[in-house]
Amino acid sequence: MIKDNSFVSKARSYLGKHVNFEEFQRKIIENWRDEIPDKTILLQDATCYEVYIRFPTDIKLLWESCQWIWEKMIPKICHKNKLKEPRSKFKEQHKKHLIYSKLRKKSYQKTRARKRASLYLLSKGIIELQRIINQTKASEWSTNESKIFKTIKQIYQQQKHHYDNPKVKIRDRIVSIYKPYIRPIVRGKENKPVEFGIKVHKVQVGGINMIEYSSYSAFNECKRLKISRLKHKSRFGRCTHISADRIYATNENRRYCTKNNIATNFCRKGAGKDNKQTKQVKNILNKERSTSLEGSFGTEKEHYLLDKIKARNPQTEKVWAVRRCDIFRNSHCKCC
Predict the structure, then answer these.
(1) How confident is the model at residue 332 (pLDDT cuts 50, 70, 90)?
(2) Does the pTM of the predicted model rise above 0.70?
(3) What residues does each domain of the chain span?
(4) For residues 321 and 314, is the Cβ–Cβ distance under 8 A?
(5) How far apart are the C-alpha atoms of 176 and 107, rounded to whole Å?
(6) Disulfide: which of 151, 152, 175, 256 matches 56 by Cβ 3.0-4.6 Å?
């Protein structure tokens, strides 16, 4: 019996820091290559595994930063060093923030006024906390707290610039003070237009899913078609069929597939119709991708805890995403 309750968490942390998952996938494929069917057919698509954070807004983010400075850090450092806490209107602004957050309809004027007040309070908090740190020579300052304070400074700069220039888009927008690497990923879906997490490009061969590429920043998956095909060639050999979503059907990808004699499920351009055999092949490829590959995304999120990843750093978040992948789930079936 394992008495250490954090054993699994420590194992995930160790794997995240020391394991090269690209190499690990390659080794597993080498051992399974003879047993994998339909090695010439490549399916590919992208999905987003969201992390467990509350939906971020500018007001929430600014107020969370104010709370971290005025409620947590300044009282903590002042108490340990027997210093007098600087004066502020934090309590007054706290009441106003509660009134604003309870409003059913938040008008543009009220939102802008609340943002202006939060920016002023945060600016003063950053100045006062920096003064106290310089005065105490950062004796009570941990590495993690230093990173969060640096993140809060970046948040203030981004939000102040956005307040002064509302129509200008924020580049590399930070959405969490504790996870500054998370970026908003626009997906364009009806129920979730924006997702916050790790975007993963997956390929499937013979019913086995593999992570081809992952990033916390948004990327266009259609650019991964050539790279995916080259990786497939190095692992499995020749690729004769590719099935992918409509976003992959760019002119560049069409020319590439035609040049390499690869049949695809892309819709025909221009006048004319596909012959009966070509139409049947495209229907089979479309059905296989939508049921097998896209269906695996739903299975992972519904039954394998990937709907919201509850890890605390990027290394363990990737372990969550990788260990729930089909290549790991199917390893149990292969070994039994």
Answers:
(1) very low
(2) yes
(3) 7-53+197-335, 58-164
(4) no
(5) 24
(6) 175
